[in-house]
Specification:
Elements lengths: L2 H4 L9 H12 L6 H8 L6 H16 L2 E11 L28 H13 L4 E6 L6 H18 L2 E5 L5 H10 L3 E3 L9 H4 L5 H14 L2 E3 L2 E3 L5 H14 L3 E6 L16 H14 L4 E4 L3 H5 L3 H4 L5 E3 L11 H11 L2 E3 L8
Parallel strand pairs: 1-2, 1-9, 1-10, 2-3, 3-4, 4-5, 6-7, 7-8, 8-9
Helix pairs in contact: 2-4, 3-10, 3-11, 4-11, 5-6, 6-7, 7-9, 10-11
Bound molecules: iron/sulfur cluster (SF4).
């Protein structure tokens, strides 16, 4: 065995075999340690393609060349009482964004039609809120059975903090999955939000899990966190057993007081995606908000580690035209999978 393999933290740059050894390890069922995940994030740029090759081997094992697409519907925008420092919809944000209460049935149904037309597997209904009020709960309970009946879409609801009772009501009306991001590592959480805690978010995920729905939870890269914070979030998500992990890259928005982080280069974004793939090998890893801005011309490489992405716009920022996403997937030789074909982890 080479010196590099014996001693992963030796000064010598890791070699291609080091990343393949990590892939071998996770494919054999032995989870990555925090130290190994940190090593992935610290991968030299010169080793990036070798790292991606190892991540792709793991992605291929669980998801072949499938790509799952998601379409976001910002069903209620702005007006949030929380102070999440990265969010254009927070009470402290000065960003000029649309502000409206929960959309009408017709608009929500129209979004589902677009999701179906765009080959999205999942329609994500998102509201800005600390948690849903009764009117919002009832709107979701009414629309979800209609959407499922008419379009057969997988439904993800992102409604903020949930009680056990609310989680059970969502399950009962047909919601398949709830998104509630941890956003960052536990140690960094109080620097990005003071109106609720990391533990509040974990409790919501546990309520979702107890109600029998899939958990979707990920984070945002570029909020002043350390590599250790990102690793700690990835390991927490693995331990919670989340099904789907959206990895966002912070989009600086005028009026939102969260400075751009210079180290979030396209290469660093790819290392982050590879780290999530190796820490959570059989989970769905989604390239989420900030894909176009931060990965730029390296976007296609992201799909060698991740196996899903959003098509269309994000909550308050624009995505690239869907045709460019379809072209990118075709150029890679990958295939879009629909609800019925998806191999759900
Ligand atoms: S709870 Fe959600 S919508 Fe409200 S400020 Fe935080 S991230 Fe934004």
């Amino acid at each position: 065995m080479s010196e590099t393999l014996d001693c992963p933290t030796a000064n010598a740059a890791p070699t291609a075999s080091r990343w393949q050894a990590l892939a071998d390890q996770v494919l054999a069922g032995e989870p990555l340690t925090a130290e190994q995940a940190g090593e992935v994030l610290a991968c030299p740029d010169s080793e990036l393609l070798n790292l991606l090759d190892a991540a792709y081997r793991v992605r291929r094992h669980y998801f072949a060349n499938q790509v799952q697409l998601y379409l976001l519907m910002n069903a209620k925008s702005g007006l949030c009482p929380e102070d999440c420092g990265y969010c254009s919809q927070s009470k402290d944000s000065q960003a000029e964004i649309p502000k409206y209460n929960i959309l009408s049935r017709d608009k929500l149904m129209d979004g589902a039609r677009v999701a179906k037309e765009r080959d999205a597997r999942t329609y994500c209904i998102v509201i800005s809120a600390r948690g849903p009020n009764e009117r919002e709960m009832k709107a979701v309970e009414t629309i979800v059975p209609e959407i499922k009946e008419k379009y057969g879409l997988h439904i993800c609801a992102c409604l903020g903090l949930l009680t056990d009772d609310q989680a059970q009501r969502l399950k009962a009306c047909g919601v398949d999955r709830v998104n509630h991001n941890l956003n960052t590592g536990q140690g960094h959480y109080e620097k990005i939000c003071t109106t609720h805690t990391f533990a509040d978010r974990v409790d919501t995920l546990k309520a979702v899990r107890s109600a029998g729905m899939e958990m979707c939870s990920g984070g945002i890269v570029g909020m002043g966190e350390s590599n250790e914070d990102l690793v700690s979030m990835a390991i927490e998500l693995r331990e919670l057993g989340v099904h789907s992990i959206p990895v966002n890259f912070l989009i600086p928005i005028e009026g939102v007081d969260m400075p751009h982080q210079e180290h979030v280069t396209p290469q660093y974004c790819l290392k982050t995606l590879a780290m999530f793939r190796l820490v959570c090998p059989d989970r769905e890893i989604r390239i989420a908000g900030g894909r176009e801005m931060h990965l730029r011309s390296l976007q296609p490489l992201g799909l060698y580690a991740a196996n899903s992405m959003f098509v269309g716009d994000y909550l308050t920022t624009m995505g690239q035209p869907p045709e460019e996403d379809y072209q990118m997937i075709r150029d890679l030789g990958f295939e879009i999978v629909s609800e019925s074909e998806a191999s759900v982890c």
